TrEMBL record:
Similarity annotation: Belongs to the SYS1 family.
Membrane topology designation: Multi-pass membrane protein
Primary localization class, coarse: Golgi
A GO biological process held by the record: Golgi to plasma membrane protein transport
InterPro entries: Integral_membrane_SYS1-rel (IPR019185)
GO cellular component: cytosol; Golgi membrane; trans-Golgi network
Transmembrane spans: 12-39, 59-83, 90-110, 116-135
Record protein name field: Protein SYS1 homolog
Phylogenetic placement of the source organism: Eukaryota, Viridiplantae, Streptophyta, Embryophyta, Tracheophyta
Keywords annotated in UniProt: Golgi apparatus, Membrane, Protein transport, Transmembrane, Transmembrane helix, Transport
Domain of life: Eukaryota
Compartments, record wording: Golgi apparatus membrane
Any one Pfam family match given in the protein's UniProt record, by short name: SYS1
Length: 152
């Protein structure tokens, strides 16, 4: 972690966004497989990208909601190792969920469900705040200094 002069490296930023997005979807897939896959006969991308699969009135809907929120928690941990800076957590989590919004629009149309917006807004908040907290905690650790005594 280099905290000196800020160096503009677009390839690093793009690779961090791609890595964070991939890790988020892998984690979301794992949680969906465990929580939703046991409740439905066939898993599909509908549960990832269609806003109509997040009704708060069904148990399966709550499993989808739990998967999204648990993935946000995991995403905060990923930001600790990928992003490493507390001040960048909002940028990267907002980018992740904006890309997710565009994929959802392409897949199933504009999300008209208030539940979808609340769940994903909560996911952004959780990922940003927890990721920022974890990164700030790491940034504020004391730097270990070892002193060697010379035997002169």
């Amino acid at each position: 972690m280099f905290y000196g002069a800020i160096v503009w490296d677009p390839w690093l930023i793009i690779s961090q966004i791609v890595c964070l997005q991939c890790l988020y979807y892998l984690t979301l897939g794992l949680f969906m497989l465990v929580l939703v896959g046991t409740r439905v006969s066939r898993m599909s991308l509908v549960y990832f990208f269609d806003y109509s699969t997040i009704p708060a009135s069904t148990v399966t809907g709550w499993c989808v909601i739990a998967s999204i929120l648990l993935s946000a928690l995991a995403g905060a941990g990923y930001m600790l190792y990928l992003i490493e800076r507390a001040k960048k957590c909002l940028d990267f989590s907002a980018t992740l969920y904006t890309i997710h919004l565009f994929i959802c629009i392409i897949y199933g149309g504009w999300p008209s469900s208030i539940t979808w917006w609340v769940v994903n807004g909560t996911g952004v908040a959780v990922m940003t705040l927890l990721g920022g907290y974890l990164c700030r905690k790491r940034e504020l650790r004391e730097i270990p200094i070892t002193r060697y005594r010379s035997n002169v």
